[in-house]
Design a protein that fits this description.
Distance between the termini: 79 Å
Structural class: mainly alpha
Strand order of the largest sheet: 3-2-5
Radius of gyration: 23 Å
Length: about 325
C-alpha cells in the first residue's frame, strides 16, 4: 500500500513480456503512428489549401484530424520509448499529464463527431438555411465549446486522481495511463471511483450519443421522404464517412470496455485499448480520403504536379505531351 506523495513513478505492463516481440511491436506501432500523423496532416493541408473545401463539414474534419494527431501522440511516443529502452516506468507527473491529455483529446473526439453529425443534420434536413445556420461564428463556437468541455473533463480526472491517497499496487495493466485503470489502483474508495466513472460517462457520454442518434434519426427520416432513389443515395452519401468513423470509434471503445469487463486478463485489456487509441486514428484518414470524392480529388491534385515533374525528368519527351 503506497501513498501518492511518496510515489515517484508507476509501471506500465504494456502488451507483452516476450523480449522477442519487442522489436516487432516497436516497428508496427512506429509505422502506424507515422502513417496516422502523415495521413491526418495531409487532410489538414488539403482542407486549408483548397477554397472549395472551406465549408463547415471540412472545417470540422480538419479539426478532427488535428485532434487525432494529438490523441495518438499522448500514448504511442511513450510506448515506443519504453519498447526501445525495455523500461516500463513512467513518472507520477508524466502519468497524470498523459491521463489528462488522453482524456481531453478523447473527449474532444466525441464532441467533434457530435458537431459533425449536427452539421450533416442541418445540411440534409434544412438545406436552404444551411449557410445561415452553420455560419463561421457558430462553427468556431462549437469548436471552443468542445475544447472547454474536454479540458474540464481532463481536469476533473486529474483532480480525482489527486484525491487518491493509498494505492494497492503501482502496476498499470496497460501501455499508457488509462484513467479507468489508474483509478482502479486505489486501495480505498472503490465504490467512489466507480460512481465517479459512471457519473462522468453519463454527463459527457449521454449528450454526445443522444445528439448523434437524434441527428441521424432526423437525417434518415428526411432521406426516406426523397422520392427518387438517386436523390436518396446522393443525400446519404455525404454521411457515409462520418457514420463509418462514428461506428468505428464507438464500436472499438465499447469493445474495449466489454473486453476488460468480461476478461480479467491484463493483456486482453491492453490489446482492447489499442483498438480505440491507435486503430481508430489510424483508419480515419483512409475512411475520409477514400470515401470522399472531393477530398480525394484535392489530394490527387496536390501530388499531380510532383508526379508530372518526375515524369519530365525521367522522360524529356513528356514535356511536349503536357504542353501539347
Amino acid at each position: 500500500m503506497c501513498n501518492l506523495t511518496h510515489i515517484s513513478e508507476f509501471y506500465l505492463l504494456g502488451l507483452s513480456d516476450d523480449p522477442e516481440l519487442q522489436p516487432m511491436l516497436f516497428g508496427l506501432f512506429l509505422s502506424m503512428y507515422l502513417i496516422t500523423v502523415l495521413g491526418n496532416l495531409l487532410i489538414i493541408l488539403a482542407v486549408s489549401s483548397d477554397p472549395h473545401l472551406h465549408t463547415p463539414m471540412y472545417f470540422f474534419l480538419s479539426i478532427l484530424s488535428l485532434d487525432d494527431i494529438c490523441f495518438i501522440s499522448t500514448t504511442i511516443p511513450k510506448m515506443l520509448v519504453n519498447l526501445q529502452s525495455r523500461s516500463r516506468s513512467i513518472s507520477c507527473a508524466g502519468c497524470l499529464t498523459q491521463m489528462c491529455l488522453f482524456t481531453v483529446f478523447g473527449c474532444m473526439d466525441f464532441m467533434l463527431l457530435t458537431a459533425m453529425a449536427f452539421d450533416r443534420f442541418v445540411a440534409i434536413c434544412h438545406p436552404l438555411n444551411y449557410p445561415l445556420i452553420m455560419n463561421p461564428c457558430l462553427c468556431v463556437s462549437l469548436i471552443l465549446l468542445s475544447f472547454v468541455t474536454s479540458f474540464l473533463d481532463g481536469q476533473l480526472h486529474v483532480w480525482m486522481a489527486l484525491q487518491m491517497t493509498n494505492f494497492k499496487k503501482l502496476e498499470i495493466p496497460d501501455f499508457f495511463c488509462d484513467p479507468s485503470q489508474f483509478l482502479d489502483l486505489s486501495y480505498k474508495g472503490t465504490l467512489t471511483n466507480a460512481i465517479f466513472k459512471y457519473v462522468v460517462a453519463i454527463i459527457y457520454g449521454f449528450p454526445t450519443i443522444f445528439g448523434i442518434l437524434f441527428s441521424y434519426y432526423k437525417i434518415i427520416s428526411s432521406v426516406l421522404r426523397i422520392p427518387s432513389s438517386g436523390g436518396k443515395y446522393k443525400a446519404f452519401s455525404t454521411c457515409v464517412s462520418h457514420l463509418s468513423v462514428v461506428c468505428l470509434f464507438f464500436g472499438t471503445g465499447l469493445a474495449a470496455y466489454i473486453g476488460s469487463a468480461v476478461s480479467h486478463s491484463t493483456r486482453v485489456s491492453a490489446v482492447s485499448s489499442v483498438m480505440y487509441t491507435v486503430v481508430t486514428p489510424f483508419l480515419n484518414p483512409f475512411i475520409y480520403s477514400l470515401r470522399n470524392r472531393e477530398l480525394k480529388n484535392v489530394l490527387i491534385k496536390m501530388f499531380k504536379p510532383e508526379l508530372e515533374t518526375r515524369s519530365i525528368i525521367d522522360d524529356p519527351g513528356a514535356l511536349e505531351k503536357i504542353t501539347g
